[in-house]
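Shipment paperwork, digital attachment
Item: protein structure file
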Amino acid sequence: MNTSAQGIPGLPDLTHPNELIKFGEQIIQNSLLLVVLVIGLGIAIALINFSLRQETREQTVFFGEWSIRYSQLLKGLQHLALILILTVTGFFLTSTLGNRYHHWEQAKIAQVAESVAGDKLEQIAPQIRYITEEPYTYTTQVNGKIVRVTDKQQVTRFLNLASSNIKVKIDQGVNVQNRSAIYITEYNAEYKFINQLSDINSFFLEAPPPMGYTLLSSYQVEKDGKIIAQKNPGDYGFPFQLEPGQETTLKISYQAQGGPRWVYNASNQLLSKFQLTATANFKNADFASGIIPQAINSNNNSTEFIWKFDNNVSVRNPFGVFTSTQAIAKTGIIPRLLLLAPGLFLWWILLLYLSIPMSLKNVAITAGIFFACLLTLTYTARLMNAEIALLIIAGLSLGLTYSFRKNQPTTIPIIICTITGAILPVFGLLIPYSGLTLSLAALLSVGWLAVHNSVDMVRS
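Attachment content:
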């Protein structure tokens, strides 16, 4: 897993000890403030009682009214405190889940990116090198006079290959250490070279192995069927003799393992009578760097790519084979839903309060159903389509809210509030047309409240 994949910055995460300590300190401070307010209210009532101690009738009326208002206030404060506690706790839960899900999504994206854009096997086109002497002129000072001197120096020159016929077979494996894909390649290339020089017969074949390999085996260079010995360890310059006007065949073969791409780099050479046949023995193989092959042949789980150039073609970018992956879509949807979940919970609770009598027990059950369903949706969305998972969870949530039917003449208000206040808004945040769906949910909610209020007015 890529260590650069991080959660959403600035959001609370209950899996971090430092943030838990900080939240605890804030809760203690807010609790002390609430205690001070309650004590202040008690002192105010006591002072009013003391000031009215001589007026018994006024004192009785005052405390009679205040007792009723105070009991209503306490009952409302109980509901408000419970909803506040559930909402804050739910926010910490959903923000933690949002961070975890975002972290998981970014790690998944990094893993896919690593599988197609990590290390690669890059084969550099071989070159024919020779050394020749060329005259050059320089000036120097002798006895106070400027003298022009003509001398010879050894320079390195390169010649183009007459033809290239390359065949590479690629199998895809798995690197057990980091679970990323690797390529196992079998490379066989045949190059023809014609000595067009009249005074040079000593050459070097510069044939380096592929760059980026982790394992190289059976590396071998042949000239006309005979193996050319390597002179210096680590030096891939193979010397050979060829008389002027003669032609020779050079073969290079090896097996290598490396990153999840294989490309051929022409190294700014002019390619003549060039043919590269890359056979990928796995699914989802595609050609790299935008150099379109002349032919693509597919057979079951194998794909063959053929590049063929006739005369003096220059290819600037490396070209070859890589494993294509489908575009990663619908990222960030679940984290967004989790961040907005407390607001959706408050909307659902408000609809229920305006539709049916709600007890503290019903409020707690409602919160448990809502956040438990969100938790289930968060983890089932990793295994299946989120919309299908929501439909299954929605059916379960409707069955659980059926427990509110006690002391209710009908369950229609509960079902309507659950659909318009919870299920439809959550569904709207999972699909592309979120604004339209949320607007429809709000319209249905307000329409239900208007109809419900009209029915109550008729009954009264």
